[in-house]
Structures are given as structure tokens and as C-alpha cells.
Amino acid sequence: MTQSSLPGPKARAMIERDHKVISPSYPRGYPFVMDHGKGSEVWDVDGNRFLDFMGGIAVVSTGYSHPKVVKAVQEQAEKFLHISSDFYHENWVRLAEKLDEIAPFKEDALSFMTNSGTEAVETAIKLARYHTKRTNFIGFTGAFHGRTMGAVTFTASKAKYHGGFYPLMNGVTHAPFPNPYRPVLERRKGEDYGEATVRYIEEEILNQIMPPKDVAGILVESIQGEGGYLIPPDGFFPALRKLCSKHGILLIVDEVQSGMGRTGKWWAIEHFGVEPDMLTSAKGIASGLPLGACIARKSVMDWEIGTHGNTYGGNPISCAASLATIELIETEFMKNAEVVGAYALEALKEMQMRHPSIGEVRGKGLMIGVEFVKDRETKEPAKELTDRVVDIGFERGLLMLSCGKSVIRIAPPLSMSRSEMDEGLKLFEEALTIAEKELM
Ligand SMILES: Cc1ncc(COP(=O)(O)O)c(C=O)c1O
């Protein structure tokens, strides 16, 4: 499907107004100006229809304006919009009970609700320091954890996120994220690349840079998002868990992007058979209403009254949206993510055989990355081609986002049907074919 020339006149006018009054720091992808959406489809202000492969950066888990989520929001809005976290209300309690039920550890879970992913990460950092009485942390290259001062210190996917903002938080050291497609560390015989990474942390960081007794936590995305939709090798998390337990270091997994059913399980960490001590959630947790959570083992969330709080935490509308979202994920969409995701992964692997620019296809559920290279041998990232595929896709009616150096992420609503996936993959391949002809 070809769109009328984009952006259309109404979109162009809106973008002009936007540029006059909105912070220029926002990294806008391409000139899409939203009018409305339904399920996995969206329309711009000029009436152009698009299929959505990015779900508002992996947020719109139940699709745009799912009637059950809209109803829950409307009903709660009629009752009260806000009461503040100084008081109590039922949806907040019900949501925390549900998070306790689905938390990826056997111990009881306590939750601290936030307004965003970065605030959930900030909460985890503070709690880790408070609980362990230690100061330092280990994060990973390529990570994205948010943009507030603590979280952005761990973020290491683009130097731009740090430039101009120093000094950042003290006491954070980064290890290379275990990317088996582009290894930077040496592997010993019998080790998988994840185990080699944990050995590096023990030998190079804990022995040579910071002693374990000063390390409060290791913060890591269960599947790296912004860094390129990277799945760590199977040996990584079990070895990391062992290392953390040995030294009394908290294992904190960031599930802001990978959690809430996206990978076919509630949390991506469940694919690796390991229990973290703490996790952060946001994005898909409430279908687009602002909400996040830091979920911790009860024995870890031991801070005293008044030590940490916020005004909007447990906002009643966000909690209502989240409860409806979680019910839909539980009854329908987590299974759908698994099935449609496996179908898409297979189709993309077939596509890889027809397109030399696809270096790797990887994913779990509806968290799929397609990495483009100039040459499969050298694996040189094909950044220009990646950007062109995204742009041509947009022109033909498909919303996509890139990540890493040259990866397109496929993170549609978890409700996407197989026929919609077929339509999207067809548009994706058309865009790729044109971009390859232009650039390869
Ligand atoms: C893994 C991860 N953590 C944290 C964040 C920050 O979330 P927010 O933008 O809601 O602050 C993001 C956002 O992309 C993310 O992908």
C-alpha cells in the first residue's frame, strides 16, 4: 500500500507547531502524527492508515484503545482521578497483589509503583543501596535503563545520553553485554559466551576494579532492548545468579521492555530459569497509561516509612488500566505473543535466506530483532540500509523502529493477529528489497 506523499498537509502543519514549543531533545523517528488507533492499526491526521510493528516503543501491549482497558479507565475516572500515595485505594492494592502473584521468584513480592520506567530503575538503585548498605553497581554496555540521573548512568547505548550531563552517579562500572553475534571477550573451552562474560565480571571487575563487598547490585536487562534486541546465551543468567549469591550482590533485572508477556512469558528472565532479587517494569504494564513498578523480594524491600515515595505512585487510572491489561495478557495475549511471535521468527528466518543484508534474526515471542550487515562475513553494521528500510516502510504504511547499530525491532501489540503479521512482514520485505537495490 502506498500512502499519499508523507507527511500530509495536516501532519506537516502540526510538526511545524510542535517544533516551535516542544523540547528539541526528543529523538523523533519519522513524521508520523497520530490521529487514532485500533488494535494494531493507526491512522495519521491526514487519514493515512499504518500497521504498527512498534506499539509505541513496546508499550501498547493490548493494542490501541482495547475496549476493556478503555472501560476500566472510564469507570475509574468517574469515581476519582487521584488521591496521592499518602492514602489507600483498592485498585492499587489489587495490582500489587497481582504483581506478587506473577513475580518471578518464590518469595513474596512487594511493589513500589512509579510513573515511568526510569523511575522504577531509580527506585531499584536506591533500594539496593539502602538494603545492602553498599554503594557500587555493575551495569552493561549497550544497556538502556532510562534518562534520570541514576538510571542514565547505567544507560550505555549511545554516548549522547551522557554527553553534557557529567558528573553522573558515582560507583557504576559497565561490563560488556553478552552478545553472542558480536563477542568481544575470549571464551574458554567448555564455556558459553554468557559464562565467559560472568567470568570477566569476577576476574576483571570484582578482582581488579571494585571489591564485591562494596557492590550493591548488578542491573541488567533480561533481553537487551534499545541495545539491539539481544538475547544472552543460556549460561549467562545462571552464572550471574551464582556470582551474585556468592557475594551478597542483588540481581536486579530490568523488564521494562521485555516483561509483561512480550516474550510469551510474564518476564523474559523466566526463559533462563533464574530468580532475580528485584525487577523493574513499565511500558506494557498499563497499555500506555503512565505506570511503572519496582518489584522486590519482601526481604529486600525493607526500607522504613518515609524513606522513599512519590505523589502519583499507584495512580488510580493507571492501576485500573493495568489490571485490565494484565487480565487480557493472562487470558489471551501472552499465548498470542508466543504463537504469532514464533510464526514471525520463522518467516523472518526464511526471509534471511532471500536477503544477504540480514545478518541475524533473533527473538522470543513478540520481541524480535533483525540485524542488518553490509557483509555477512565481516558483519559490518548496515546502518544506512536499516534507516532506509524504516523510512520506506513508513512510506508504504508500516511503523517500525530501529535499535542497536543496525537492527529493526519488531515489537507490535501482543494482540497482533497472524494475518496482520503477514501483512506487516510483506511490507517489511518490500521495503527491504527496495533499500537493498538502492544501497547494496
Ligand atoms: C529496558 C528499559 N528500561 C528503562 C526504560 C525507561 O523507561 P521510561 O522511558 O518509561 O522512563 C526503557 C525505555 O525504553 C527501557 O527500554
Give the tags.
440 residues; alpha/beta; 7-stranded mixed sheet; 11 helices; 15 strands
Explain this structure.
It is a single chain. This protein has 440 residues and is an alpha/beta fold. It is 38% helix and 16% strand. Strand 2 and strand 3 form a beta hairpin. It starts with 8 loop residues before the first helix and ends with a helix. The model has no long low-confidence stretch (mean pLDDT 97). Pyridoxal-5'-phosphate (PLP) binds next to helix 5.
Order of the strands making up the biggest sheet: 4-10-9-8-7-5-6
Structural class: alpha/beta
| Oligomeric state | single chain
Q: Which ions, cofactors or small ligands are bound in this entry?
A: pyridoxal-5'-phosphate
Low-confidence parts lasting 5 or more residues at pLDDT below 50? none
How many angstroms separate the termini? 24 Å
Write the layout of secondary structure elements.
Blueprint: H1 9-21, E1 34-38, E2 41-44, E3 49-52, H2 55-58, H3 67-79, H4 90-102, E4 109-114, H5 117-132, E5 136-140, H6 149-154, E6 172-175, H7 193-206, E7 215-221, H8 236-247, E8 250-254, E9 278-281, E10 292-297, H9 316-354, E11 358-364, E12 367-372, H10 383-396, E13 398-399, E14 401-403, E15 407-410, H11 418-439
Parallel strand pairs: 3-13, 5-6, 5-7, 7-8, 8-9
Antiparallel strand pairs: 1-2, 2-3, 4-10, 9-10, 11-12, 12-15, 14-15
Helix pairs in contact: 3-9, 4-9, 7-8, 9-11, 10-11
The structure holds pyridoxal-5'-phosphate (PLP).
Residues 57, 116-118, 121, 144-146, 221, 225-226, 254, 256-257, 282 line the site of pyridoxal-5'-phosphate (PLP).
